[in-house]
Amino acid sequence: MQEGINIFEQDFWSINDAINRLLQGTHAKIVLLIDREGQMITSTGDTSRIDTSSFATLSAADFAATSQLASLIGEREFSTLFHQGEKENLYVSLVANRIILAVIFDNRTTLGLVRVKTRTTVAELEKTFRMLFSKVQQGAVARKEIDADFGRIAEKEIDRLFGG
Amino acid sequence: MALINYASREINSKIVFYGPGLGGKTTNIKYVYAKLNPSIKGRLISLATELDRTLFFDFLPVDLGTIKGFNTRFHLYTVPGQVFYNASRKLILKGVDGIVFVADSQIERFDENLESFDNLQENLKAHNLSLGKVPMVLQYNKRDLPNITSVEELQNILNPRNEYRYFEAVAPQGIGVFETLKEICKQVLKALA
Ligand SMILES: Nc1nc2c(ncn2[C@@H]2O[C@H](COP(=O)(O)OP(=O)(O)OP(=O)(O)O)[C@@H](O)[C@H]2O)c(=O)[nH]1
Ligand SMILES: [Mg+2]
């Protein structure tokens, strides 16, 4: 069974650092990291303009549908996707097979630059995520914070918000 | 499986509404959307056909707020129930943390429930999961209609060992909707702890 993704402090900062450098290096507007199941991991840039939760779900769906299309024509995977708009463009790459890196950019930069810089960032992120996944596999993850106490409080909140 | 981010202190879990076409999955999620306080719900996304049948999924994020320092969020999805959309169903199940199986109580839909239940098990297998490993709640929907299978009979066929909690529902009126949702959310968080 594939384990959930657990991200700890140290890894999170190095991930954020990597996507910040990508944002600055490309003059892109927004960079987002999303897991393939559609959950936002982190983002940088002017995210106030978009609904990141919706964006995450739809990109994951987009990637999922596209990778099925790939297998239908005998490709293992399309590792990148590009959607071109009139003003805004979207460049999407797969990281370590489980994470989606999305770059939103306009005509202040070029696809060429985005593509080249993204490739470097993907390689960097792959290293971090592979380490992170192996930590999870080795069971080195401390889940102590999410304990029975957490369960009790959560249950109360569920009753309160969904009508007890 | 759930995404737990210890750095940004977030927990996201995925709950999938499964079941035969026209059983009422989308109606459940739309009712939840209509009733929830705006401050805790995100946008409802429906990828549907012209005729309002689910084509890929419905999606609704629900924010439980901060629990022991963790911003705790549920992502509710429905699958398309129509038989020929199986590829989509399989994709949506990826990373599922909890399942609501919405059964259609109408007598003439009895077989479709069974088929969908089988299909669920098969699709879980494709993700190396099984019913024993993922929390599940049953919802016997459309209890307002005249021609329905008795709860006993539905239980006999879908839940013979009484392993799953079940709720009777009339989704358009909201009967049983939040009861079902509350139960699956609790089970999912319990499984995390
Ligand atoms: N009478 C009655 N009608 C219901 C009930 N629940 C759902 N419906 C109706 O059944 C129809 C189908 O409901 P949906 O929620 O779209 O069904 P679905 O399971 O999402 O269907 P797919 O997207 O094709 O998988 C709608 O017209 C609903 O209004 C119920 O409890 N009682
Ligand atoms: Mg539907």
Structure overview:
- With 164 residues, chain A is α+β, with helices and mostly antiparallel strands.
- Chain A is built from four helices and six strands.
- A five-stranded antiparallel beta sheet of chain A has the order 3-2-6-5-4, sandwiched between helices.
- The mean pLDDT of chain A is 87.
- Chain B has a single domain, classed as P-loop containing nucleotide triphosphate hydrolases (Rossmann fold).
- Chains A and B meet through strand 1, helix 1, strand 3, helix 2 and helix 4 of A and strand 1, strand 2, strand 4, strand 5 and helix 5 of B.
- The complex binds guanosine-5'-triphosphate (GTP) and magnesium ion.
- Magnesium ion binds next to helix 1 of chain B.
Ions, cofactors and other ligands present here are: guanosine-5'-triphosphate, magnesium ion
**Reported CATH architecture of chain A:** 2-Layer Sandwich
Q: Helical proportion of chain A?
A: 40-55%
Strand content of chain A: 15-25%
Radius of gyration of chain A: 18 Å
What oligomeric state is this?
Answer: heterodimer
Assign the CATH topology of chain A: Beta-Lactamase
Name the shape of chain B in a single word.
globular
Number of strands of chain A: 6
For the terminal residues of chain A, how far apart are their CA atoms? Answer: 34 Å
CATH superfamily of chain B: P-loop containing nucleotide triphosphate hydrolases
Overall form of chain A: globular
Write the layout of secondary structure elements.
The complex is a heterodimer of chains A (164) and B (193).
Chain A: E1 6-7, H1 9-26, E2 30-35, E3 40-45, H2 52-72, E4 80-84, E5 89-95, E6 99-105, H3 111-137, H4 148-161
Antiparallel strand pairs in A: 2-3, 2-6, 4-5, 5-6
Chain B: E1 3-5, E2 10-18, H1 25-35, E3 45-48, E4 54-67, E5 70-78, H2 86-93, E6 98-104, H3 110-126, E7 136-141, H4 151-158, E8 165-168, H5 177-192
Parallel strand pairs in B: 2-5, 2-6, 6-7, 7-8
Antiparallel strand pairs in B: 1-2, 3-4, 4-5
Helix pairs in contact in B: 2-3
Bound molecules: guanosine-5'-triphosphate and magnesium ion (MG).
The site of magnesium ion (MG) has 4 residues of chain B, from helix 1.
